[in-house]
Amino acid sequence: MPRNAEVIRQWTILRELESSRRLTLDEMAEKTGVTTRTIRRDLEALQFVGFPIYDEVYDGKRYWLLEQKAFRRLDATGFTFAELSALYFSRTLVECLAATPFQQDVKSAFDRLAAALTPGMRTFLDRLPLVIQAKPDPGAQSAPARPKEIAQLLEATLQHRRVVMRYHSFSSEREKAYIIEPSRLVFAQGALYLMAYVPEYSQVRTFAVDRIK
Which parts of 100-190 fold into alpha helices (H)? Predict the structure, then answer.
């Protein structure tokens, strides 16, 4: 099992509970592809760190819910729990991309958002895999987005899967097929780059995402 699979699955459970309002163990197991026994352990772990998850019986079936009213500190922010958590998770990327005059203000804003979460919740969110890095370059312009390719690379990175890609090399001016093991996406100088292990060369290489065909 990938080393980050547990926290990714638990994050999925939280999102599903928030959007669906209530779910059975079987439904959560089906959505995440694990057994109900694993789901029970996930729910216990989430409850332990402070997420207000509880169960109730309705029409003879037991459902699990995420108590929305328990997040009273969210009222002042105007964010839903999922939005706040996503912002907290992405703080490193946003702080790094912020231009220097605003960097401290951005950090202060995220510190205030973090205060709306319990220490246990912050610890849980800190375990979410940081697969995107950013290196600040305020003067650079962002390259065109590649949402489909980026989504595939992120999924492969999180799940520790191999990828087959065709890549146009700048140095040789030709296309080549690669089998790679993605490890990280890096935003630098206005462009997105992929760091990946290449079994053929037994080394980690860097690829420009906009050159992936």
Answer: 103-114, 119-126, 147-159
